[in-house]
Each structure stands twice: as C-alpha cells, then as structure tokens.
Amino acid sequence: MSHFATLRFARSVAAPLATLWQAWTAPAARALWSAPTPEVEVEFLEANPLPGGREVSLCRVAGQPDIRCEATWLELEPLARSVACETVSAEGETRSSALITAEFSSVANGLQDESRISLTVQLSARQAQMESGYRMGFEAGLRQLEDVARRCMVLRREIAAPRAQVWQAWMNPETLPQWWGPEGFSCRTQRIALHAGGEWVFDMIAPDGTVFPNHHRYHDMQPQSRFAYSLHWGENGPKHADAWASFEDSPGPDGKATGTLVTLGMVFSTEAEFQNARSFGAEALGLQTLGKLARFVGAA
Questions:
Q1: What angle do CA 185, 186, 189 make, to 5 degrees?
Q2: Does 112 or 51 have the greater pLDDT score?
Q3: What span, in angstroms and rounded, lies between the C-alpha atoms of 268 and 68?
Q4: For the chain, the helix, strand and coil percentages under 3-state DSSP, each to the nearest 5
Q5: Is the pLDDT of residue 78 over 80?
Q6: Is the whole model's pTM more than 0.90, yes or no?
Q7: 167-193 burial, b if ≥16 CB within 10 A, otherwise e?
Q8: Out of 92, 187, 217, 243, which could bridge 266 as a Cys pair, Cβ 3.0 to 4.6 Å?
C-alpha cells in the first residue's frame, strides 16, 4: 500500500538570488551539496538542467545497496521557480516518486544580499518510513545548499557572438591563454589539454611581474553548453574552488539568438577564501576576464 505525504521546507540564504539559483541548478554546484551526510557518496551519471532534461545519480553508503535517483526537470523559470519529478529505486525496485517544486525570492535586508528558497515535495512511497528519510535528506540538503551559496561567486556577461564561436575561443588550447585573466595579466602555459579529464598547468603573470601558479582540472564537458573544473594553487596544489562555465543563446526581441550569455560560477573551498577573494576584487577581475573574451571574439 502506498504512503502519500506533502512536505514543505524553507530556508533563507545570505546570498544574492542569482547565486542561490545557480547553486540550486548548476550540476557542479549540486554535486557539492547533494549528499545528506559525509557517509553518503553521490555520483552524478547524467545532468541536464533544462526543461525536459534529466538528472540521474547514485547514492552510495558502505554495506548498503546503491540508491538510484532519476529526475526530470519539468519547469525552470530562472530566479523564480523550478519543478522536477523524481523516482528513487534500489536493486531494481521503485521505492518512491515525488514532485518537487522550488520557489525563489529575494529577501528585503538592508545589511546584505539575502534570498529564500521554499520547497514543496509531494511524495508517493512504498513504505511510510520513506517520509522521514525525505525529511532528513531535504533538511540536510538545504543546510548544505546554504553553505555552498554563501561561498559561491557568479559572474555573467552577454557576448554579441554566436555560442559556437565563444565556446571555441574558450576550448581551443591555442586561444584560451591569449585572453584568459584580468586586464594586464598574461599566461605562461606548461601544458594544456581541454577535455574531460584534461588539465591546464600555467602561470598567471601580473602587470608588475608577480607570478601566480595555477592548475585547472576539467570534467563534465558538454560541448557548447557547459563544462566544470577545479582550481588549484599551483600544480597539484590545494584546491581553492570548484567552478563551471555555461553558455546559452541570448535571444533578441524576435526570439532569434543574437549572442551568447556566459555564466561563470565558483564555489570556494571555504567561506574565508570566498571573503578574501571578494576583498581583493575577484568579481571585478573576473568580469574583466570575460570582457577580454568578448574582445577576443570581436564582440566588444
């Protein structure tokens, strides 16, 4: 006999609405907060955050069967609302299905940017105890979502060039070093391979000659759509951020694509690193980098 329940959750987050939305929808960010406890390992097999797109993941706990979650995004209204349906199974047997509606809003707060997520989960489960599991999982997930959003930086730039051209400028090992970095910086490459499992080991050289060793490790490449990578302090050094870039058509008044909307997101390893990055102007420097990309493709 099936068990039915409607569960509701809400959380205010000390981050801008656009940042919270990216933390909720971007696959690279979702991978950071999806596991409800440290004992749970979540592996994403498929992720496509578009209406009709699927997300498939496996939850693993030592000594227990893998839990498979298959979800489909039904609605994605940026900065406002998402709707998804999911099915959870183990050992080939369906355990539950749910319709998950998330609503987003800004919160009036004169001291800092703040936003809010409200969740409604309409659950149908084979066993009544699944309800308590959903409650625990979503409460933990929202706590971790808040933590991720608080150390997340999101930069966006519309570039008046086709998506294929913008993607190629970023994914070409000959051209990426030509424009990467803020104004006045240059890149000196040791090795570069721009594909899933590839890496870019390079020095960024400031206008005053200061050298900043960098190591980017790439994964989740979806051509002309998105990629994810981790940023390290020098070759094989400590990781200081998980990052992603996404590319969307930017439509004109007639609905036809007139350019590309580039979103660059970074979740710093700690909130202290995030605050330090903000203090030295990382947001402005990152926007300068996207501005150099626009000039490189002849769109600025």
A1: 145
A2: 51
A3: 29
A4: 25, 45, 30
A5: yes
A6: yes
A7: bebbbeeeebbebbbbeebebeeeebe
A8: 243
